[in-house]
């Protein structure tokens, strides 16, 4: 249980104006007077409407976070977690890297914190900041690791983090505006991004006629970040065996949860075998901000 929160005010910024935050009764405020509540679980609520995008994003529901927790906890994405962790360790320990004791790993749309926890376990001197639109995910992440601080945030246009503040940024199946990623990375810092390949979980997409979410390809991400230099790229490709419940979780931990009913998906899965093969295909790319 995380009882002594990491000092998040050192790295967080006001999502309205980008100003620094100071602790005040009930939360934190910037010099311009924007107030942000601190929830009783310890995290700041920085989820404000992104400019020109209507209401703030709500992020994953409790049902989706539960499905993600179960699916990841069962080990079906262990190879992806290992690839993200190894890329983060190589990036943090490279000569000239920004990582120093107490430096920050910022996990964009980090969900319940599974990937960030693996990275922090391998980098014991670093602290983690997880941002996500989902309050359920943020609460789960805070409890998951003693060196994780977390805040709710809508990351479509702004990352509420100071300039040059992050030694590492993680972006695992997650949004994150390119110019903002460059702004928050310290000189010598690195972005580790995990991007699904078109065949990732294809058996579910084909078998259940699911919505195919168009993914940004690794090359498109690299092209959108000309200020960063590609340093490493690895693609995890394997087949895992999942039972029907895990197959349903794989569906409901993603955006299909907004378009499908669990009972209907479970009924469709019941018509097939109890266990099925699932393709895992994810590219992990490391991009460095020159020092
Ligand atoms: C596919 S999940 C990935 C979670 C985590 N990175 C992982 O791989 O386990 C996407 C995450 O993005 C969050 N999310 C969706 N839209 C968002 C937004 N506009 N701003 C911040 N987070 C968002 C969701 O709540 C969810 O936790
Ligand atoms: Zn402000």
From TrEMBL:
Keyword Cytoplasm on entry: no
GO biological process: methylation
GO molecular function: metal ion binding; methyltransferase activity
SUPFAM superfamilies the record matches: S-adenosyl-L-methionine-dependent methyltransferases
Keywords carried by this UniProt record: Metal-binding, Methyltransferase, S-adenosyl-L-methionine, Transferase, Zinc
Record-listed Zn(2+) binding positions: 30, 34
Xref: InterPro entries: rRNA_m1G-MeTrfase_A_prd, SAM-dependent_MTases_sf
Binding positions for S-adenosyl-L-methionine per the UniProt entry: 200
Protein name: 23S rRNA m(1)G-748 methyltransferase
């Amino acid at each position: 249980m995380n009882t002594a929160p990491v000092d998040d005010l050192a790295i967080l910024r006001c999502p309205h104006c980008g100003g620094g935050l100071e602790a005040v009764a009930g939360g934190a405020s910037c010099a311009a007077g924007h107030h942000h509540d601190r929830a009783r679980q310890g995290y700041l609520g920085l989820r404000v409407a992104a400019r020109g995008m209507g209401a703030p994003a709500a992020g994953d529901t409790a049902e989706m976070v539960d499905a993600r927790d179960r699916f990841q906890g069962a080990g079906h994405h262990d190879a992806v977690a290992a690839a993200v962790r190894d890329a983060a360790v190589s990036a943090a320990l490279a000569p000239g890297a920004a990582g120093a004791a107490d430096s920050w790993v910022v996990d964009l749309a980090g969900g319940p914190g599974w990937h960030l926890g693996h990275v922090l376990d391998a980098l014991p001197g670093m602290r983690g900041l997880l941002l996500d639109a989902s309050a359920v995910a943020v609460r789960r992440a805070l409890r998951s690791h003693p060196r994780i601080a977390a805040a709710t945030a809508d990351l479509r246009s702004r990352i509420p983090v100071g300039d040059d503040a992050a030694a590492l940024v993680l972006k695992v199946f997650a949004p994150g505006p390119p110019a903002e990623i460059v702004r928050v990375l310290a000189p010598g810092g690195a972005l580790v991004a995990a991007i699904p390949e078109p065949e990732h979980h294809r058996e579910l997409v084909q078998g259940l006629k699911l919505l195919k979410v168009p993914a940004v390809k690794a090359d498109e991400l690299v092209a959108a970040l000309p200020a960063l230099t590609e340093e490493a790229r690895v693609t995890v490709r394997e087949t895992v065996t999942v039972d029907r419940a895990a197959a349903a979780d794989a569906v409901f931990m993603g955006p299909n949860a907004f378009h499908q009913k669990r009972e209907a998906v479970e009924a469709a899965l019941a018509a097939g075998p109890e266990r099925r093969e699932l393709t895992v295909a994810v590219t992990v790319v490391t991009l460095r901000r020159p020092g």
